[in-house]
Amino acid sequence: MKSQIVIFIALVMLGACSGPANSGITQQPTLADYQVGEKWVWKYKGVTTEGEVRSDGEETREIVSVNGVLGMTIGNDTIPVTDIVKPDESETPKYDWPLEVGKKWKYENNWTSQDGTTGNQSQDAEVLSYQEETVAAGTFMAYTIKYTGKTSNSRGYSANEEEVWLYAPAIKNFIKLTQNQGEFSYAEELIDYSKPK
């Protein structure tokens, strides 16, 4: 499950966005929106309905320079920022740019986990609001994006799921995620954000 979430969060990073214009519409950022030393830290926890803790920890991502090329560290990997800001050409993207309140679209994702299990997500997405939201890291203007649908895998698992992402354009990232999938609930919250002065 954790590997699915890591893949999913990496996809979210591929949809990072810049701040909304006066019109309330948010465009995707450019390479210039990131700087070396920018850092995000989240606390996450996943629990079954029976109380079994399946994941519990922290995740840190940071913008680094590798041979003069900007990258984002995600676990043991470093993803070039140029990949993060590259437009998603899919007809069923994670984010349908530009973002604005009331926008709806279909999101579909096929994936393969590290153990070879394949799976599929099919969700209806809607931007519900854009307002101040408070998490452990502070208060940010954020979009609330709700995804509802189904996930299944090659091992016979199938479940309805609902995900709510609070996405803060000013920091180009999500500040909170809550996910309910079958008998499993997962939550992730930003506990620290910093950038060079």
Mean residue pLDDT: 87
Outline type:
globular
Question: How many structural domains?
Answer: 1
**Structure class:** mainly beta
The radius of gyration over CA amounts to 16 Å
Strand order of the largest sheet: 4-3-2-1-10-9-8-7-6-5
Total strand segments = 10
The succession of helices and strands, N to C, reads HEEEEHEEEEEE
CATH class: Mainly Beta
Low-confidence stretches: 1-23
Considering DSSP H and I runs of 4 or more, what fraction of the residues is helical? under 10%
- First-residue to last-residue Cα separation: 37 Å
CATH architecture identity: Beta Barrel
In terms of DSSP E residues, the strand content is over 45%
What is the gist of this entry?
With 197 residues, the chain is mainly beta. It has helices at 2-14, 81-84, and strands at 39-48, 53-66, 69-74, 77-80, 104-112, 118-135, 138-153, 158-168, 173-181, 184-194.
